[in-house]
Amino acid sequence: MAALRLASRNLLAKRTFVSTSCRKVHYINATKATFDQVASNGSDDRLVLVDFYADWCGPCHALSPILKSVTDGSDNLDLVTIDVENESGGGSELAQQFQVSALPTVVAFRGGKQVDKFVGALRKNQVQEFLDKL
C-alpha cells in the first residue's frame, strides 16, 4: 500500500497544469446596467455582440444558437442579449438608442464604441464572415 501511495505522489509531481485566460461570456436577457458595464465600457481587445431580440420573433430564435455557437468558438468575444420588450430592464430604451427598427439586430462593440451591425437572421457562415471583417 505504501508503494502505491509513493507511486501516486510521483505521478502527481510529474503532471503539468496549463491555465489559459479563455473567457467566453454570455449575458442572457441583460439589463441596461449590464450593457453599460460590458459593451459601453468594453476593452479594445474584446469584441462584444449585442443581440436585440423579442420572444415572439421567429428569426431571433433561429439566430440565437448560431450566435452562441460562434461566440463559444472565440476567446475574445462576448455575447449580450437584450429583450427589446423589457421595459424595466431598459431593453426598449437601448433599442431606441441604437435605432433598432427590425429584429433581430446584432450590434458589434469594441472599446465601448459601435463598430458595425447587421439586421436579420444570418446563416452561421455569414455571421462568421461578419466577425472576420471586424
What does this structure look like?
The protein has 134 residues and is of the alpha/beta class. The protein has one domain (23-132): Glutaredoxin. Helices cover 40% and strands 22% of the residues. The chain contains 5 helices and 5 strands, in the order H-E-H-E-H-E-H-E-E-H. It has helices spanning 2-14, 32-40, 58-72, 91-97, 124-132, and strands at residues 26-27, 47-53, 77-83, 105-110, 113-119. It has a 5-stranded mixed sheet with strand order 1-3-2-4-5, with helices on both faces. Strand 4 and strand 5 form a beta hairpin. The radius of gyration is 20 Å and the shape is globular. It starts with a helix and ends with a helix. The model is unreliable at 4-21 (pLDDT under 50).
What's the CATH class, please?
Answer: Alpha Beta
CATH superfamily: Glutaredoxin
User: What is the makeup of the main sheet?
Assistant: 5 strands, mixed
CATH overall fold name: Glutaredoxin
Which class of secondary structure composition applies to the elements? alpha/beta
Strand content: 15-25%
Reading the helices and strands in chain order gives HEHEHEHEEH
Euclidean distance between termini CA atoms? 59 Å
List keywords for this structure.
40% helix, 22% strand, globular, 134 residues, five-stranded mixed beta sheet, Thioredoxin domain-containing protein, alpha/beta, single chain, Thioredoxin_domain, Glutaredoxin, Thioredoxin_CS, Thioredoxin-like_sf
Strand and helix map with partners:
Layout: H1 2-14, E1 26-27, H2 32-40, E2 47-53, H3 58-72, E3 77-83, H4 91-97, E4 105-110, E5 113-119, H5 124-132
Parallel strand pairs: 1-3, 2-3
Antiparallel strand pairs: 2-4, 4-5
